[in-house]
């Protein structure tokens, strides 16, 4: 099929849809639908030729039926908008399920790559200047998948991705001078050279949000960008934030926030123009945010009454309560104002000093009632029992003593 662009090929780079994922146990498939519908509109208005989706299409290996139906509808919309689709599996996907009926889908312009033996098999799509070769490198586990390349391959992301790219480079070598190519890869890449020092997981933790799953092997989960040598453009997936490692190697990030760790992160996709000589020009496009993500911090009474929070009442809310004692029925009270409060944490600003006495010294000479009263203060971070609570404790012990006498 010949693409519609006259100046070159226009590619939309996206990834990490995580179809079927929930936000703090709340179904957000309708929110993802809003976002991807906006992306489909962009396919049409920006005259996109090919949409590349760099892995984590689904959120888990066995998605529910509604997730399959959702993906099917989105892909049909993209094709009707005029673009072909190339997608790969990520570390969240079940490769065999994602690739079901992929041969039939290819005849419809939807190309799926989920296996190592497909890596050197180019998907060729033409534009006005000739062929562009698309290669899919699905997520590769350095321990489980290295035998598909070389059983003696070092157990690292760098080694297995370099071996995968060797297959790409070998195929490109037989396709004439300066063939244009686009590589999709689901991995954690950092700017660097082969065989160089790579950061360990602790050093890259700031780039890994709580909506992601670690792929560390031996404390290292990254590979250097030099392994992708030879590709005109590399569309990466796995990180949930957009990044440009250089002009030709980029992450699009996830199109939707899936955790509070994704707060204040831009959501969108790259529009990549691939020229006649393999030159690359990329521009960022933003996507709508169906519901923003906000964290609010303070004492409960202030959070539910302060007009300063009027602007976030419809957001996904994570509430950090700083009251000295954990307030009673806090979530219900918060939801009276913030209907989409889905996370609650108690972080008191004042921590009661338990003193240096041993437990034996603290209880010596005290009655059971006194100990119960002190326990209330202990679990409430130093807030003492009220007179009414003391009366209830005394009544409980009186009933206990009466029951013992009756026996």
UniProtKB/TrEMBL annotation:
Residues 291-378 form the Nuclease SbcCD subunit D C-terminal domain. SUPFAM superfamilies: Metallo-dependent phosphatases. Keywords: DNA recombination, DNA replication, Endonuclease, Exonuclease, Hydrolase, Nuclease. Pfam families: Metallophos (PF00149), SbcD_C (PF12320). InterPro entries: Calcineurin-like_PHP, DNA_Repair-Maintenance_Comp, Metallo-depent_PP-like, Mre11_N, SbcD, SbcD_C. It comes from the Bacteria. Residues 9-101 form the Calcineurin-like phosphoesterase domain. One of its GO terms (molecular function) is 3'-5' exonuclease activity. GO terms for biological process: DNA recombination; DNA replication. SbcCD cleaves DNA hairpin structures. These structures can inhibit DNA replication and are intermediates in certain DNA recombination reactions. The complex acts as a 3'->5' double strand exonuclease that can open hairpins. It also has a 5' single-strand endonuclease activity. Belongs to the SbcD family. Heterodimer of SbcC and SbcD. This is Nuclease SbcCD subunit D. The lineage of its organism: Bacteria, Bacillati, Actinomycetota, Actinomycetes, Geodermatophilales. The gene is sbcD.
């Amino acid at each position: 099929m010949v693409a519609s662009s006259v100046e070159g090929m226009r590619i939309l780079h996206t990834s990490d849809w995580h179809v079927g994922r929930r936000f703090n146990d709340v179904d957000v498939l309708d929110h993802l639908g809003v976002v991807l519908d906006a992306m489909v509109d962009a396919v049409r208005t920006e005259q996109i030729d090919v949409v590349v989706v760099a892995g984590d299409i689904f959120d888990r290996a066995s998605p529910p039926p509604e997730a399959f139906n959702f993906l099917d509808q989105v892909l049909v919309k993209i094709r009707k908008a005029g673009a072909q689709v190339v997608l790969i599996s990520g570390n969240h996907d079940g490769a065999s399920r994602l690739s079901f009926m992929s041969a039939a889908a290819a005849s419809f312009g939807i190309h799926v790559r989920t296996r190592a033996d497909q890596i050197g098999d180019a998907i060729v799509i033409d534009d006005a200047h000739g062929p562009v070769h698309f290669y899919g490198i699905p997520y590769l586990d350095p321990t489980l998948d290295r035998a598909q390349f070389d059983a003696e391959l070092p157990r690292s992301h760098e080694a297995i991705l370099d071996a995968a790219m060797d297959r790409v480079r070998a195929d490109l070598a037989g396709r004439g001078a300066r063939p244009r190519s686009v590589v999709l890869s689901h991995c954690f890449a950092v700017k660097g050279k082969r065989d160089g020092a790579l950061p360990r997981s602790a050093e890259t933790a700031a780039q890994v949000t709580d909506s992601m799953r670690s792929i560390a092997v031996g404390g290292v989960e990254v590979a250097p960008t030099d392994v992708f040598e030879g590709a005109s453009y590399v569309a990466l997936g796995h990180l949930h934030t957009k990044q440009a490692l250089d002009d030709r190697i980029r992450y699009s990030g996830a199109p939707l926030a899936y955790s509070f760790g994704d707060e204040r992160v831009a959501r969108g996709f790259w529009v990549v123009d691939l020229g006649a000589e393999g030159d690359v020009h990329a521009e960022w496009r933003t996507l709508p945010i169906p519901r923003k993500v906000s964290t609010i911090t303070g004492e409960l009474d202030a959070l539910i009454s302060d007009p300063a929070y009027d602007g976030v009442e419809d957001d996904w809310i994570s509430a950090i309560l700083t009251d000295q004692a954990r307030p009673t029925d806090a979530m219900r009270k918060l939801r009276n104002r913030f209907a989409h409060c889905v996370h609650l944490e108690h972080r008191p600003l004042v921590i009661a000093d338990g003193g240096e006495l041993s437990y034996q010294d603290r209880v010596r000479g005290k009655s059971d009632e006194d100990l119960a009263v002190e326990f209330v203060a202990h679990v409430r971070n130093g807030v003492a029992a009220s007179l009414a609570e003391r009366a209830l404790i005394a009544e409980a012990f009186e009933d206990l003593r009466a029951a013992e006498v009756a026996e």
